[in-house]
Amino acid sequence: MALKTGEQYLASLDSLNISSHILGRPVDQLAGHGLVAPSRRAVAYTYDAAHDPACRELFRVVSPLCGQEVNRFTHLHACAQDLVNKVKMQRHCGAATGCCFQRCVGLDAANAVFSTTFECDQRHGTPYHARFRDYWAWVQQEDLVVDGAMTDPKGDRGKRPSAQADPDLFLRVKERRDGGVVISGAKLHQTGMLNSHEILVMPTMTMRPGEEAWAICCAVPVNAPGVRYIYGRQASDTRKLEADTLDVGNPVFGGQEVMTVFEDVFVPAERVFLDGEVDFSGVLVERFASYHRQSYGGCKVGVGDVLIGATALMAAMNGVEKAGHIREKLIEMNHLNETLYACGLACSHEGQATAAGNFQVNLLLANVCKLNVTRLPYEIARLATDIAGGLLGTLPSAADLNDPATRPYLLKYLAANPAFTVIDRVKVLRLIENLTAGAGAVGYLIESMHGAGPPAAQRIMIERQAGMEGKMAAAKRLLAIA
């Protein structure tokens, strides 16, 4: 099948007939819903980009798996350059949409599952790798969006899955039937779930002997019986429902997070890729996390490009673009953003082949990348808030601009550099607000902190991967210490 356009992708979503609870109400027609439509457009962009002469080469690649040209968002990395191109593609998408474009989790999950199933089969004689190869070749040929689902509710964090008051607080195999398994539980924070065709379920952490029921990896169609969706809130999200889009900040694109409930969902055996092999649950989690930590060196940088550009534009609109302290702050914002990008590229360039043949990022550098992401976007946002000024938090609404009684006052007293209109100044302020304190801050800031694991998770991996014994040995050699 040829690579889909954005329009064809949206039509394929509509054919799934999925519904969700949104703001306390069941919604069957998601396509026209004001909270959902911006996130659908963001995903559609990743399809249209594959047809854009300006960037199509970055988005298209011939897959060794199916032998056809596929969208890079479904590609299994075949070399280090593929890892590099992934980061470049993600930066491009972030800059083009100014938000989370929602396809990275599935891509990262697929690459982790591909190598993990191969090694599991080698040790245990399981049939998972061949199943996954067939499944993913189908995903590539159909040009689908797959949502990677890892994060369980976890309940009491001080207790293991089997010790929870409710065993469903970690998604599990509840029952075995002829030809498959029945799973029960939930996945939280699912980015772009309602914009996907498929769900790739993974265990949320390393499981131990006795926890085999929770060591499950499988694929589920988004419209499978028993799967339920509850839409997440974002700061200022109901602005998207207003007739005038001026206060939205990002008038075209947006992100999406969903609580996904699996209520006795049957999964056929051919869609099961790990089932009770606890010794590979941690391998899968670690590899997925590393791929996703690499991703943040691309997507967050692209959104950072938008925020930096808007901040520089606001400085010009305020007439202070030549002030020394403003220029220094903009330089610092660029320095921080490019540092994130450098980390994303570094862990990609240092990637190596797995036993399965696809390429894995450098684990140490991927975790360094993500640990920086938990900090630097917040500093970029702080500097943007500093430069933008207090109007970021006190600007009157679009309704006031449209009201004949108040519009003249706003046009008079919100004027600054005469080279720019008041309306354009409001647009830029709202975009900065969106990314630093509004709906866009979910993808740019909160996700930077907690997506792919919070800072403590990266510190644990850095400690494991830092090679301290080798570094101590180097010091001993230098000092002739036995």
Mean pLDDT: 97
Look up the CATH topology of the domain at 282-473: Butyryl-CoA Dehydrogenase, subunit A, domain 3
Strands, count: 14
Please estimate the helix content.
Answer: 40-55%
SSE class: alpha+beta
How many angstroms does the end-to-end distance come to?
A: 64 Å
Which sequence of strands runs across the widest sheet?
5-8-9-12
Task: Note poorly predicted spans.
Answer: none
Tell me the number of helical segments per DSSP (H or I, 4 or more residues long). Answer: 17
Rounded to an integer, what's the Rg over CA atoms? 23 Å
CATH superfamily of the domain at 282-473: Butyryl-CoA Dehydrogenase, subunit A, domain 3
| Strand-residue proportion | 5-15%
- In CATH, what is the class of the domain at 282-473? Mainly Alpha
Shape by Cα distribution: globular
Largest β sheet strand count, sense and barrel closure: 4 strands, mixed
Which CATH architecture of the domain at 282-473 would you pick?
Up-down Bundle
